[in-house]
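Example (one chain per record):
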Amino acid sequence: MGKNKLQKFDDMDLYPHVFQYPFSILQNEGFDMKGKWNSNFFKNDHPIVLELGCGKGEYAVGLARKYPNKNFIGIDIKGARMWTGAKESLQSGMKNVAFLRTTIELITHFFSPGEVSEIWITFPDPQMKKVRKRLTSTRFMELYRTILKPNGIIHLKSDSNFLFTYTCEMVKVNHYPVIFQTEDLYHSGLKDDILNIKTFYEQQWLDRGLTIKYISFICENRDRLIEPNIEIEYDNYRSFNRSKRSENKEKIKFLNKD
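Predicted structure:
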């Protein structure tokens, strides 16, 4: 691990709005702010919005600037990238944004039922060969609806036709009410300042001529969720990914940290 990355981790250990909790600590101590984000950290009763797989945190920070009456939490396992948004928000004195370094599979360890109002999923890995790892699979929907308020909203913004098609089918077979859906966001005519926040990689995808897909829907409670039974053509391009080896090393080291 390079010195620059180590320095970023050291920095975030001192940031009051960054929470880093390896699984070993959750097992032994739990997360004492679960159910208390509004009262103990944000010190208000404003709605809480999560950005999952936040990367550099462009969305969490951008949304927090536009909506001071909402609280935003960026979640990712990749701490070195999260540092960018954490530093920017700290230097800007923003009080309605925080960052949580953990795996999304553990999200229910950090939030109580009904504590979250909205979830943004911004450009996740489409996981074309692994259904259970897709952030819009029914497995994750079960987790999200545990922490979402009744009629909580989920947003997906993606360059992947595979993931977008899969998600739309998942929404359809489970009869989730759709708020908005488009295969080409920036030519859809939708007037919404939120959607104009662009991540670093999103701009590169746009420069490559790719269209950005978007869907938002209400995650209503269901007795049983159904996985869509559909064959979807794989994406025919490679996304912007870091070395999987370096990602896995960082994730394993963090999860095993005492």
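Caption: The CA atoms of residues 42 and 150 lie 22 Å apart.
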